[in-house]
Amino acid sequence: MKRVFVYLTAGTLVVMGVLLGARPLRQRFSDLRSDLAKVNADTGDVMASANYQRFATRREAVAAMKADLLALAAAESAFVADSGRPTVNPPLSYWSAKGRGNYATTIRIERDRWVAKMNNLHTSMSCSITATVDTTTWTYHAGAPTCAEWTPEESTAIAMDTAPAYGYTPVPDPPPAPPPGPRKHRDWGPVNNTPPPTPFIRRNTRPSGYSSYGRWVACSTVTAFRDKRLDAAPVFTVQRGEEFTTLTGDVHIESPGVVVFRHPISNPPTRDGPEVDTIPFTPRDTLFLLNQIGEGYVLWWFRGQVDTGYQFWSDNGHPDFVADPSDTVALVRRAKVAWWVRARDQAGRNGWILHDYPLMATGGYMDEVERCGRKP
Length: 376
Fold this sequence. Notes:
- By secondary structure, the protein is α+β, with helices and mostly antiparallel strands.
- The protein folds into 2 domains: 56-166; 200-269 and 277-372, no CATH class.
- 21% of the residues lie in helices and 30% in strands.
């Protein structure tokens, strides 16, 4: 009998313990199940999602977009106050995105409001802000930024939206450039290696696009002659530091440069594409160089004709340059060019001067007058 009483007492204690612990166990299980559901499912609600709160990068990205949208709203209001109209592209003097990773900001202007939308590199969400207009004071009142998932198509649609009420039409992206067409060709005639007449004179021109006429300064004594000859009678002289005016000039190619070909070759395509002719050169041909034009272009003489082409042979510009024996195209000799310039001194006398870089500064591109010890 005593043993039965012991068993009954122990059983009663066990049952009471289970009853007392069941409620806390049920509560803990319920909390665990709720946490698991939140971890495994993001509802997309920026303010309430437990999963979102666990990702600092995403949270910071959304905060950056909201801050920039509020700054944009203030800038848009300032622009409206200054100009009397909204804009889809606030000038940098009013606003520029400063948030880390923010991009693709678009503004859509509607009849009674404007809506701005922004994306961020660190999240697939986008944020927007809406400002409605007060028709009495013609001021815009922006609400709080809101954020949600986005698609690139939505951003593109907003960017291309229009605002006819304000006479604004966004400029669409230009269409892609068509592929280059076939390069031009022409019949150059039979092989003719007769050099050009010398001196080959190009009248009323300049040796290159970098040179210019106008106010020049003498770096040393400069003499102007009656004719384009160094043995002609002098007309006037200009001393160091004095200005004189250049009017026009002639380029004299006293001896042409020479380029030869060891193997057949066509001059390669250039940035000008089909507008530049392709010439089939052969070892029987000689290309005579007249003068440099600039940006790699050269005036040359080929088979009795003058033409312009792009330099496609090696030349480092050094006086002792020698072409590599293995080159298909080889520069044998550079052109000897003289630039005779019609000039006028401060007394109104006209004469011809031979351009010489150490003796004068043209004041043009890469030849400033400071080189001659004179301020511009």
